[in-house]
């Protein structure tokens, strides 16, 4: 990673070269034991209305039939390249795929997700109209293992857009972005970010979400352009919100904050003082409050964790629906609170109905 000398004193967007008329697009797929889904993921790219792409797949030590499926598709279409390696986790798999790709635009697709057929065409045209943007994001439609609609993510808030670096740091480096299948970057940006820290066996998309906005303008497209599959084999799946789950989310959040902090040391060290510590972020305050309530420590839950959440400067910037839900949660006894938080934070039919009403 090279230090951006002109950015040492102040973060500012990278300068991006003009895109060619018909840019090549790389679709990077990290796969591990998703043989039952990887074919559908590949097909969703092959069926794109925009056809100047390459698919680069890293099979990360699968023990199912994934590699056989991948090889069969590679025989049919020379735009599909693959590498098979021992299991090392998501970041290492994306790094291996990135080394093989050669496009001006880099998109990502989880091996159990699918692209909408016009996604790549829309992204290319959008970037032509907004040459200053190097990071494109869009919502995703969540589905279950059989393809049933589970609602749009995010449901109740708009995705960040614009040059948001300073705002991002002020919020502790955390904003709500879509998962990896909703991310696309210019190659100038990915060249700075890659290779990703291979210690991140999971949550590698979190590194992209927290570092890319420090490098370039973010452009949010409002339309969901990928389907994200939610099932019990997802690395990040949780069918039930438990204390262990919340503690794991706190640990992940802290590790991502540290990764972002380490990046700034090299890229723009004078901005280090601008990043809020993780324990002061609203994400941490939310998780701490929920953890206290789930553990049934009512005195603490109705004491400092709650007050720290609702008095946090970022609380007033949450969508009205979320603020109301947090206030409602305060009034609930613990057994009902646990059901309430599961209904709110997991994918379910209630969210599907709400999503249908909001996105119709």
Q: Beta fraction of the residues?
A: 5-15%
Assembly status: single chain
Number of strands: 11
Intertermini distance:
44 Å
Structural class, by secondary structure, is alpha/beta
Give helix % range.
40-55%
Rg result: 20 Å
The spatial strand order of the largest sheet comes to 3-2-1-4-9-6-10
Can you offer a commentary on this structure?
- There is one protein chain.
- The chain is α/β, with parallel strands linked by helices and 360 residues long.
- The protein starts with 24 loop residues before the first strand and ends with a helix.
- 41% of the residues lie in helices and 15% in strands.
- It is built from 14 helices and 11 strands.
- Residues 1-8 and 350-360 have low confidence and may be disordered.
- The protein has a 7-stranded mixed sheet with strand order 3-2-1-4-9-6-10, sandwiched between helices. A 4-stranded mixed sheet has the order 5-11-7-8.
- Strand 2, helix 2 (66-76) and strand 3 (80-85) form a beta-alpha-beta unit.
- Helix 1 packs parallel to helix 2, helix 7 (204-211) packs across helix 8 and helix 8 (243-267) packs antiparallel against helix 9 (282-294).
